[in-house]
Amino acid sequence: MKIELNTNERIYEVDVEPYESLNQVIRHKIGLMGTKRGCDTGGCGACTVLLDGQAVYSCMVPAARAEGKKVTTIEGLCNNNKLDPIQDAFVEKGAIQCGYCTPGMIMSAKSMLSQNSAPSEKEIKDSIAGNICRCTGYVKIVDAISAAAETIREGE
Amino acid sequence: MEYSYIGKRIKRVDALPKVTGEASYFSDVNLPDTLAGKILTSPYAHAKILGIDTSKAESLPGVRAVVTSKDMPRVPLDFALAHFNRRVDLFAMASDRVRFIGEEVAAVAADNEEIAEVALSLIDVHYEEIKAVFDPEEAMSPDAPVLYDDMESNVAVYMPGDYGDVEKGFEEADHIFEDEFKTQLQYHAPMERQGCICKWDMNENLTMWTCTQTPHLHQYMVATILGIPIAKTRVVSPYVGGGFGAKAHQAFPYHIISAVLAKKTGNPVKIEYSRGEEFSFATAAPSFKIKLKTGVMNDGKIIAKQAIVVEECGAHCYIATGQLLCSIFFSFAHIYKVPNLKYEGMVVYTNNPNRAVALRGFGNTQTNFAVESQMDMIAEKLGMDPMELKSKNMFEQGDTDMMGWHFNSYGLPECIKQSAESADWNEKRAEKSPNRGIGMAALIHACGFKGSFGSIETSSAVIYAKQDGSFNLFTDFSEIGTGVWTVVQEIAAEVLGTRLEDIQVSAGDTAFTPFDMGSYSSRGTFSVGNAVKLAATDIRDQIFEVAAEMMEVKIDDLESKNCEIYAKETPDKKISIAEVTHHAIMESGKILIGKGIWNTPSSLFDPFSGTWSNLGPTPSYLFGCQVVEVEVDPNTGKVTVLSVDAAHDVGYPINLDMAEGQIHGGVMMGLGYALTENLALEDGKVLCDDFVDYFIFRAPDLPEIKPILVTTDDQYGPFGAKGLGEATMVPTAPAVANAVYNAIGVRIKDLPITPGKVLKALKEKKRG
Ligand code: FES
Ligand code: FES
Asked: How does the average pLDDT of chain B come out, rounded?
């Protein structure tokens, strides 16, 4: 079936199968490869995108269910080469190793920070509890999210 | 020495591509007309294959090719791994017999994954089950089914060694300690799953996009197995989504299968494991059983040590020999000075699904758990602080031990001291709160263990100067997350006196990078760092030669900094690097190409003498010590880690953020190994297939991890730097076990330390 997907403020008309996940469609039909796929079963968070601002596992959402909603992927965070404060903080704090969890981590943080720009350390950790990082021990990721929150608060 | 970049917090070169989603991993490569490849694997742990009927699958619309072992080259996949005493037993597909659940039997290429799945279900394999064996102890018994017909038993490798007089040592000892330790299978769990895309062009060139830690060895193996020229085989693997050893494969069956399917269909073929497949049979570190006997004098001096190490490799030996070497030598034979040593190491086949794949620590993690747990027991019995016991038995900087290992830098005492201070060790040991405990464990490791993975230990780099004073730097290294691209950028810029952004790093593509062993054994910073330092020095000397002529000064007087070249004596005489390179290339026809080849001065183990002829397996050893504090709930048995203070001798840190990051990540992996991670098996079948059953620490569960970088200025390291990555998880599990003992007085000798085991031990303790 044909659906219209509003992804990163752009309308894509795509032909999808009922069983196809949003993850498959974003990656293979729209061609945005920044969103990763680590398990396909809602277990790792590598596929996290925003659906109307809420972090979701794109592997668990049928693509058809995203019609009429706003999908934001990692590619949608950086406009005219200007990084989102979270992306900036990940670079500054060295919160990256292999980078496979990074897009999902950033999207989870984005969802949380858009509702709460003064999170406690626990709230930060809870916001990424659904995202596994095998490389960093999360330490610098938590630092980065907290630095991003500060930048966002300063801009408010 | 004040450096411009070395030892600072420098932003990673791969940071921007990774935070924006631009970094392209193998599975992000989207080629037109790519077919989905899927592999049919054995449902039996041990069976004969009597016949395979693929006709139904072949006639399914959308199926482009079906292959079995008949289509596969009969060249083993593991022909060039360890340098001695090993078996070659891994082929791309099973032909007449399967030896574990998950062994490759047939494969299809189809228009999409769904059709490929259906096609697999239409392949008829006629099996006849045979008796299987799953326990290594049972596998060694005379009536066990033997996995390989050319063998009399399941002992794939047997490696004995004897130094001094162990029996006499035990006779003289005031105390003897005998314990048995067990470790589990650990799954690497990189966030990127294994896979590759293969494409042949009209000139019969094969390009393989994959996730490998070792592109050039991978290229060599794949080409040799397929029987095609190495130069016509291109391996592309720049960004790798985590490796930890899982991708230090020079060729796995799926690589060969994908290449054969692509050849047969004329289309690109992509094979990517599902997470379930990853769990079930892709990669895991082998389990070990370690019997350890130690003789100690009243003053704490260790006088004799004996170990029987049994490594269970599953159905394939793969790199088990290398792991066995590392399991024996580091923590058993070299961490402390022991005059009398004896060991027997064995690699044993079973019908379990693991291929003895390398995992961070590579055998050392397992033995370190045994040795450092026992050290804690010895200290308690002698009424000594574990720190004191360690100090009594340590080496000194400059020592060469009885097997020939030479410690040119030796940060162990400092690591123990600093981790203890940071954790308030003395205070916490003296004033214990109920159910809380603190434990420590130390380690030794190598940066680049010669002989663990082949008989060489080399790296190389090439650097070209451009007309404007910028440089292209080529190394083989994939960026698996360790930060090696940033390390080499810093090193080249430091040597050349340029800005960081003047060094363009290109890596992970065999079409244009020079040979390297790859990313494993904590060798990146050390080996490729040395190669890049040599290459940068080479090209700097060429630039200085031109500059000396242009400036009319002696070449020895020259120095470079901030993109300019100065004469030391007359600092106002200067010229920009750009002017020199432009003049050289565009006006004198001098092409500036720097080359660096690092061939480590270490030596290979000689199995006959049982020693190394020069320096040991590496010129530079890694040391570290971790202190862990835990709280144990005596009602539930749950162990909560409160803090980890991890001090590691890094020689000299190249990049503080990245060094700390390695420690954070390694400790987390070590805590998982200690407490939660276990690829549990039942009759050869893996019981967990997702991240619910296989628990990896999540952000909210982690304690505070304090990295401490100890500097020792290694003589061989680039800018004094040594490796780090693997060492960071090695001592975590014994430090946890020792902390648990300190908290509640029970000793868990088999990993992981689950609540069930703690409760059971508590009950036994109560019963006395
Ligand atoms: S890929 Fe969606 S949660 Fe893992
Ligand atoms: S950086 Fe590798 S998984 Fe997070």
From this structure: 96
Burial of B157 (0-12, 13-18, 19+ CB in 10 A): buried
CATH code that applies to domain A85-155: 1.10.150.120
- Give me the CATH number covering residue B740: 3.30.365.10
Residue B250 confidence class, pLDDT cut points 50, 70, 90: confident
Determine the structural domain holding residue B438 and report its residue range: 408-453+617-768
Is residue A70 within 8 Å of A56, Cβ to Cβ?
A: no
The ipTM value here is: 0.98
Q: d(Cα B96, Cα B54) in Å, to the nearest integer?
A: 16
Regarding the domain delimited by A2-76, which CATH topology (the fold level of the hierarchy) does it fall under?
Ubiquitin-like (UB roll) (3.10.20)
- In tens, the pLDDT along B582-592 reads 999 999 999 99
Residue B435 lies in a domain: yes
Residue B673 structure tokens: 């190994």
- Measured CA to CA, the distance from residue B391 to residue B442 in angstroms comes to 11
A94–B657 CB contact, under 8 Å: yes
Output the pLDDT for position A72.
Answer: 98
Low-confidence ranges of chain A (pLDDT < 70): none
- Indicate which residue's Cα is closest to atom 4 of ligand 2: A133
User: What is the rounded distance in angstroms from the CA atom of residue B405 to the CA atom of residue B326?
Assistant: 13
Enumerate residues 6+ apart whose C-beta is below 8 A from B150: none
Cα(A25) to ligand 1 centroid in Å equals 14
Bridge-based pairing of strands A2-7 and A10-15 is: antiparallel
Q: How far apart are the first and last CA of chain B?
A: 59
Interchain contact B649–A (C-beta under 8 A): no
Query: Do B657 and A92 lie within an 8 Å CB cutoff?
Result: no
User: Which regions of B97-205 does DSSP assign to beta strands (E)?
Assistant: 97-98, 104-110, 124-129, 155-163, 175-182, 195-200
Residue B433 touches partner A, C-beta closer than 8 Å: no
Structural domain count of chain B:
1
In contact, A80 and A119? CB cutoff 8 Å: no
In this complex, which of B25, B193, B664 lies closest to A140 when CB atoms are compared?
B664
Nearest to A45 by CA among A127, A135, A149, A136: A127
Q: What is the model's pLDDT at position B321?
A: 86
Strand partners, B92: none
Cβ contacts of B272 within 8 Å, gap of 6 or more? B27, B193, B194, B195
Partners of B437 in the β-ladder: B630
Share of chain B above pLDDT 90, in %: 92
**Tens-digit pLDDT profile for residues B429-467:** 999 899 999 999 999 999 999 887 778 899 999 999 999
Instruction: Report d(CA B510, CA B587) in Å as an integer.
Output: 32
Between positions 78 and 137 of A, the ones with CB within 8 A of B are: 78, 83, 87, 90-94, 96-103, 106, 122, 124-126, 128-137
The domains of chain A are located at: 2-76, 85-155
Quick check: do A2-76 and A85-155 share a fold? no
- Asked whether residue B162 is assigned to any structural domain, the reply reads no
| Stretch B60-87: mean pLDDT | 86
pLDDT at position B577 over 90: yes
Q: What are phi and psi of B207, to 5 degrees?
A: -115, 130
Enter the pTM of the model.
0.97
> What pLDDT score was predicted for residue B309?
97
Q: Give one DSSP letter per residue of B609-622, joined into a string.
A: TTEESSS-S-SSEE
Extract the tokens encoding B5: 């970049």
Q: What is the CB neighbour count within 10 angstroms for residue A122? A: 10
| Among candidates A39, A78, A96 on the partner chain, residue whose Cβ is nearest the Cβ of B275 | A39
* Under 8 Å between Cβ of B341 and B333: yes
Residues 6+ away with beta carbon under 8 Å from B153 = B140, B142, B144, B146
Instruction: Determine the residue type at B748.
Output: I
